[in-house]
Design goal:
Mean pLDDT: 96
CATH class: Alpha Beta
Largest sheet: 4 strands, antiparallel
Strand content: 15-25%
Number of domains: 1
Strand order of the largest sheet: 1-2-4-3
Structural class: alpha+beta
Shape: globular
CATH superfamily: NADH Oxidase
CATH architecture: 3-Layer(aba) Sandwich
Number of helices: 7
């Protein structure tokens, strides 16, 4: 698949078939994500991969609101985090600019975008979920306080074919000087 076609065909899927995603598939998409650039090559992004049905059920039913619980049924789950206080800070631990830890989130976003596209290339579908209970996720997956929990990615085999949403006009989102 050509890159532009890959980008344009990726969709957020909210219904997954009862078909398991393998550890090898998840490892392959995370390896691809690692190729994204990161501030000073710090590589502070972390991935907590929930593959067993029992653990997925626990996470879905205790850490998600009901709509995300439904939308992620049958999907593997990847909780994405970044190490706080590293990216965007100088050697004395002071923020380089007003974004501070925002740079860690930025780096994680770059990696997650590649992860989503690699999943699509492998025939998998995804959904980025930002509405979740971070404290419950932290406890359930033993995520250290030194990491900021950002999103949960559902990864699985689509059981629906969402249409491509409209995109804003280029003139509405960009300025050229």
């Amino acid at each position: 698949m050509e890159f532009q076609e890959l980008i344009e065909s990726r969709r957020s899927v909210r219904k997954y078939a009862d078909r398991e995603v393998t550890r090898e598939q998840i490892e392959e998409i995370i390896r691809a994500a690692q190729e994204a650039p990161s501030w000073k090559n710090q590589q502070t992004s972390r991935y907590y991969c929930v593959l067993s049905k029992e653990k997925r059920e626990q996470i879905r039913t205790t850490c998600f609101p009901s709509f995300n619980e439904q939308r992620s049924e049958n999907a593997a789950l990847i909780v994405t985090t970044f190490v706080k206080g590293n990216v965007g800070f100088n050697d004395e631990g002071k923020p380089i600019n007003e974004l501070g830890d925002g740079w860690g989130c930025y780096d994680l976003g770059l990696q997650n975008a590649i992860l989503l596209l690699k999943a699509k290339e492998l025939g998998l579908s995804t959904l980025v979920m930002g509405i979740r209970d971070a404290d419950k996720l932290r406890n359930a997956l033993d995520i250290p306080e030194t990491e900021e929990i950002v999103a949960v990615l559902a990864v699985g085999y689509a059981d629906e074919s969402p249409k491509r949403p409209n995109r804003r006009e280029l003139a509405d989102i960009s300025k050229f000087f």
